[in-house]
Recover the amino acids of this structure.
């Protein structure tokens, strides 16, 4: 995606650290996996269409997670103050709401995005691999989230690559 070009304040390294932060927060708050993958998809899609200052990167990540949470989860969202503390942000509720609106407006309220998780989940439901293989597949898929060069690769191909890498790593043949 073009937001990682030399003109952008969000470099591949900054993106990786922000995605790592998203993954950590996702694990801490025990959101469903769909929320994690949708968060990163929203984050990347928004940043590919709009330039933001490096200092706003965390705010975009947190707002992408809130949007994904509201789309995927069934329970009450965490308090904005709690999230801001976890993310170590100094933004007020108004800033968060404005950024959420900005993201949703830029994405034209289209949140039905294909993610690697959707394809992996379908493959796992069909193939029903053993637990070790399934864990390795999800490990590779979370690792893939942080890799900037995979942003432009179709989620189905990333999913297939994760399955292939897991099967090769565990010496499960045929791959």
């Amino acid at each position: 995606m073009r937001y990682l070009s030399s003109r952008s304040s969000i470099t591949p390294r900054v993106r990786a650290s922000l995605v790592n932060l998203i993954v950590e927060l996702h694990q801490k708050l025990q959101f469903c996996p769909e929320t994690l993958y949708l968060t990163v998809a929203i984050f990347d899609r928004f940043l590919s269409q709009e330039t933001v200052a490096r200092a706003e990167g965390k705010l975009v990540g947190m707002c992408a997670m809130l949007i994904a949470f509201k789309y995927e989860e069934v329970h009450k969202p965490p308090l904005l103050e709690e999230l801001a503390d976890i993310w170590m942000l100094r933004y007020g509720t108004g800033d968060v709401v404005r950024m959420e609106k900005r993201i949703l407006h830029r994405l034209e309220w289209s949140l039905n995005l294909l993610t690697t998780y959707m394809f992996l989940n379908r493959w796992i439901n069909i193939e029903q691999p053993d637990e070790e293989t399934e864990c390795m597949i999800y490990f590779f898929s979370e690792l893939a989230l942080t890799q900037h060069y995979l942003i432009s690769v179709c989620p189905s191909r990333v999913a297939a690559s994760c399955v292939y890498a897991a099967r090769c790593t565990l010496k499960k043949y045929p791959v």
Notes: Residues 116-169 form one domain.
